[in-house]
Design a protein that fits this description.
It is a single chain. By secondary structure, this protein is an alpha+beta fold. The chain has helices spanning 15-24, 73-93; strands spanning 6-9, 39-44, 47-57, 60-68, 100-103. Strands 1-2-3-4-5 form a 5-stranded mixed β-sheet, with helices on both faces. It is globular, with a radius of gyration of 13 Å. It starts with 5 loop residues before the first strand and ends with a strand.
């Protein structure tokens, strides 16, 4: 029986695994590393199984780089929700009330 992935904020040490997963999903890497502090990762043991990130621009955030390996639809959805929630939480700490979250496909 497989355990549920552990979702946590990304760290700089995660970048090689994140870049590999994004490349495998044919997603662009341009600009992603610069926004790594706004990324969340899903780990199953020592294997990255999902990633989602925000690009923050003041009080606006773009949801980008959502990828999950295998049959990770639920993992991808959870990561996207967590990234959006983190964006809203960070915006509430700043001078704006809530960011505009924009999703691209």
């Amino acid at each position: 029986m497989r355990s549920e992935p552990v979702i946590r904020p990304a760290s700089p040490a995660d970048w090689p695994a994140i870049a590999g997963l994004l490349a495998a999903a044919h997603l662009p890497l341009d600009g992603a590393q610069e926004h790594l502090e706004h990324f969340a990762c899903a780990w199953q043991g020592d294997r990255l199984v999902g990633v989602a990130g925000l690009e923050r621009y003041g009080d606006v955030a773009l949801l980008r780089s959502v990828a999950a390996s295998g049959s990770g639809e639920e993992t991808g959805r959870s990561l996207a929700c967590q990234a959006s929630s983190r964006g809203e939480s960070q915006a509430q700490k700043s001078e704006s009330a809530m960011p505009a979250i924009t999703s691209t496909t």
